[in-house]
Design brief:
By secondary structure, the protein is an alpha+beta fold. The chain has 4 domains: about 25-90 and about 120-195 and about 295-370, FAD/NAD(P)-binding domain; about 205-295, Alpha-Beta Plaits (2-Layer Sandwich); about 375-405; about 445-560, Glutaredoxin. The chain is globular.
């Protein structure tokens, strides 16, 4: 048991199919009620798709697991209805500091510019996130949560997936059109389907110690290479909620995991570390201790027939950079709208191939960054360690040295610029900035009928056409008619006008006032500029002048209907 958290017990109910002997038929089953599985269920609920969630446990994750949730993940959690809860409970931070021995050699700011709704990172113990997601899912009519329901076999035909589910009251059968496997790094679903996951195990061990203490340390990420309190190794410190601090101690590959976890070995390490700050013998209590190794692996593809893999079931990275849960939530964000269109017959199954292609690109980007971070943090030879220490020695004085310091490149969203769903810019159209096709949207403050808000909270879950105007009442009749009638084979596109002035567009098209022109600046928008936005808040296409026919072609391409 933890000192600062009481685990909820979710109610088990006897499935009615056990008594009736009938097969339960559902559109989508999600296996695994961790952050990614619950996120996938909530994403599909936003798309009006009924979902059955099965989990073999009846509580949230035990012990110390994920901690850091990046800005893009927070924006996704906003769509799922739990962003405010996570940010209110968690510890927000933007600044990270890196030390070599006793000197600070490098620092960074994840969000150096102002006017963003969410911070660069929020630190919050994973069990809180799961509790918020589970409560949100339980409150919604189209999500059914079944706890202590264990999937013991999976088989698929060309049209359905059949699952055998074990409970304390017996077995029953579920027949689903689609199965989302969110059952973790050891994925039983992956094993049942005899699918492989390739990669490597890193030859090092780390001690996690979650410590409860009163300390006025700033809300920042601190990382040490070769500190005097843990010579020759690295240490990471994160502040969490409930006065809990996460400390990671590098141990080396040859450390005995069971010995390292014993209090007589853990407590002296923590006392030495805390005493190094100002010599104060701070009182603290151990909340959780574990020793871990880590892997960087992924499946060859993430969709196999009617089974779709998300999160750790599909890909795993080292913890440096907080890329695990953040990447998994982006999987759910990418998948939900695509699966909805396929279910409704508005897009071919090839759209789910694009889920695999886009998220494999993102996974590979994470794997490369995670591997580089790990190699820098845990050099495997004297030569590489000498190089690493030389870089750290130069970082304080030289910019090129700081650029080489790698204590964990932190999670950022993938820019899907090579995606086949993007429409390239028109010849002659030039744009500055980073909002190119495939980019995740930048946020900006806006006014909605005089009420302050944020751009990202006004879009998502469907296609949007963002039209930039100087004055909404100056739009001509042809433009209004074209914006109002945007659709492609039943796929509607919601128009939205961004204007520096308040006003009403004829035809009732919604208008957002661009406070101080920040949205126009971030999107390099001039009068008449148009952006086509995907349901997952990525840019699909952009133009300097509006042409309804070109928007429809771009929608067709973004849904694999071209």
């Amino acid at each position: 048991m933890l000192k600062t958290y009481t685990y909820p017990k979710f109610e088990y109910r006897t499935p009615p199919e056990i008594a009736s002997g009938q097969t339960l038929k559902v559109p989508v089953v999600v296996v695994g009620a961790g952050p990614v599985g619950l996120g996938a269920a909530l994403d599909l609920q936003l798309q009006d798709v009924p979902v059955l969630v099965l989990d073999e446990d009846d509580t949230v994750s035990i012990g110390s697991r994920g901690v850091c949730y990046a800005k893009r993940a927070l924006e996704i959690l906003d769509r799922y209805g739990v962003g405010d809860a996570v940010c209110s409970k968690g510890v927000s931070w933007n600044v990270g500091r890196t030390f070599f021995r006793e000197q600070e050699v490098y620092n960074f700011n994840l969000v150096p510019e102002t006017d963003h709704h969410r911070p660069g990172m929020v630190n919050l113990q994973q069990y809180y996130l799961e509790e918020y997601l589970a409560a949100r899912a339980a409150s919604l009519p189209q999500i059914e949560l079944r706890w202590r329901n264990k999937v013991v076999s999976v088989a698929q035909t060309g049209q359905t997936v059949t699952l055998k589910v074990e409970t304390e009251d017996g077995f029953y059968i579920v027949e689903a059109d689609w199965l989302i496997a969110a059952d973790g790094a050891r994925s039983p679903i992956r094993r049942m389907l005899d699918l492989e996951i390739d990669g490597k195990v890193f030859m090092d061990r780390f001690l996690i110690a979650d410590v409860v203490m009163k300390a006025d340390f700033p809300s920042e990420r601190w990382f040490w290479f070769d500190p005097p309190f843990h010579p020759g190794q690295s240490v990471l410190l994160h502040k969490q909620t409930d006065s809990v601090f996460r400390i990671d101690f590098q141990l080396g590959w040859h450390a005995d995991p069971e010995e390292a976890k014993k209090p007589e070995h853990v407590l002296p390490r923590i006392k030495a570390m805390l005493g190094a700050f100002d010599g104060t013998a701070r009182e603290f209590e151990l909340e959780w201790v574990s020793v871990y190794t880590f892997q960087c692996r992924r499946m060859g593809r993430f969709n196999h027939g009617r089974v779709l893999f998300v999160g750790d079931a599909a890909h795993q990275v080292s913890p440096f950079g907080a890329r695990g849960a953040n990447s998994g939530l982006q999987d759910a964000d990418n998948l939900g709208w695509k699966l909805k269109l396929v279910i409704d017959g508005k897009a071919p199954a090839a759209l789910l191939d694009s889920y695999s292609e886009e998220r494999i690109f993102a996974a590979d980007e994470n794997l490369v960054n995670s591997t580089r971070s790990t190699d820098f943090i845990t050099p495997k030879s004297k030569v590489s360690k000498t190089f690493r220490n030389a870089v750290l020695g130069m970082a304080k004085e030289y910019a090129f040295g700081r650029a080489l310091v790698n204590s964990g490149r932190l999670s950022v969203p993938a820019f899907l610029i090579a995606s086949s769903l993007n429409s390239p810019d028109e010849a002659g159209d030039t744009f500055a900035g980073r909002m190119l096709p495939g980019a995740p949207m930048d946020d900006a403050p806006v006014l909605d009928n005089g009420d302050e808000g944020w751009l990202l909270n006004k879009v998502g879950n469907r296609f949007f056409a963002l039209y930039f105007a100087d004055d909404p009442e100056s739009l001509d009749a042809a433009t209004v008619a074209g914006l109002s009638g945007l659709s492609f084979d039943g796929i509607a596109v919601q128009p939205l006008v961004i204007s520096r002035k308040p006003g009403i567009v004829p035809g009732g098209i919604p208008v957002l006032e661009d406070l101080r022109g920040i949205a126009a600046l971030r999107y390099d928008a001039k009068r008449g500029t148009v952006y086509l936005l995907r349901p997952d808040q990525h840019v699909a296409a952009r133009w300097r002048t509006f042409d309804a026919a070109k928007v429809k072609v771009a929608v067709a391409r973004a849904t694999c209907n071209a």
